[in-house]
Design a protein that fits this description.
This protein has about 290 residues and is an alpha+beta fold. It contains five helices and seven strands, in the order ααβαββαββαββ. α4 packs antiparallel against α5.
Length: about 290
């Protein structure tokens, strides 16, 4: 064994060098930690600022929507009376003078009567749309979907080919009963409106469990919808066909969407031209009663 003598001074210098190297590494590591912390804090601040801005924008949007709906509600209400007068006089003219009129005069009177009827229907739908509670309003009632669907069929009893509609077993859900009835009524009426001329209508209403609660489907074998228009048909006043070919105000499916979203669900359409349509929507299950 060979012993190597190391002076005290050399050992001290070596120790100082090591300490210096470790110190530099520690300072560097601390600097990196500080920089990363500052970046993280800056990111958090940006996220909080973005969230605050988003919340402010959402509040403004909500307020604007309420204002627009209130404006539409007031406008529809105040238009009802003058429209009622126009419609009354148009019907009076029709009953008294229609048999005596010919050519353009009779055609113009028919336009007036039909136009006033369509406007009355439009204002009625618009009033109902604006009267619906805003999305996010809590729903505290339960509804027997089977009963609501049967009530919808009663409301549609004078609709041609209503006997072709069949109802499956439908559950009880968390919903406003009258609004659920109107939802079924509009979707069934839509199915019986856009029928195919080469086959007898077949309309079914069914339900099955879904992760959101229940998924309902109103399925028909009608003319179908182009894939590009599956989303557009739920917009207000969106019509894919001339009014003379298929009646309606262009508000029905917009009302359906608002009812479903007001209940915390979603609605969509699966369809192809000539293959019929399936309108599906989700609703939360009714709460289980406590013993």
């Amino acid at each position: 064994m060979v012993w190597v003598a190391v002076s005290e001074t050399a050992a001290l210098e070596d120790w100082k060098a090591r300490v210096a190297r470790h110190g530099v590494l520690m300072v560097g590591a601390l600097a990196v930690i500080v920089v990363l912390s500052l970046l993280a804090l800056r990111g958090i601040r940006r996220e909080r600022l973005a969230a605050a801005n988003l919340e402010m924008l959402n509040k403004r949007l909500y307020s604007t929507n309420l204002e627009l709906e209130r404006y539409a509600e007031v406008a529809a209400h105040h238009l009802q009376e003058p429209l009622r007068i126009i419609n009354s006089y148009a019907q009076l003219l029709e009953s008294r003078f229609s048999p005596k009129l010919q050519g353009e005069c009779k055609e113009f009177l028919d336009f007036l009567v039909q136009g006033s009827r369509e406007m009355k229907e439009l204002l009625s739908d618009l009033q109902f749309y604006t009267a619906l509670d805003p999305i996010g309003t809590p729903v505290t009632t339960s509804a027997d979907a089977g009963h609501c669907a049967r009530e919808a069929l009663k409301d549609l009893k004078n609709t041609p080919q209503i006997e072709t509609v069949s109802l499956g077993k439908l559950p009880t859900v968390k919903a406003v009963p009258r609004q659920l009835t109107i939802l079924f009524q509009l979707l069934i009426h839509n199915a019986l409106t856009y029928t195919s001329p080469d086959r007898v209508p077949v309309v079914t209403v069914s339900a099955e469990p879904d992760e959101a609660g229940w998924r309902f489907t109103v399925r028909d074998n009608g003319i179908g919808v182009e894939p590009a228009y599956r989303e557009r048909i739920f917009r207000m006043f969106e019509r894919l066909h001339p009014r003379g070919k298929y009646p309606g105000t262009g508000i029905g499916l917009a009302i359906c969407r608002k009812i479903v979203e007001r209940h915390g669900g979603r609605i969509w359409c699966d369809s192809n031209p000539g293959e019929g349509s399936a309108f599906s929507f989700t609703l939360p299950a009714a709460p289980v009663p406590t013993p």
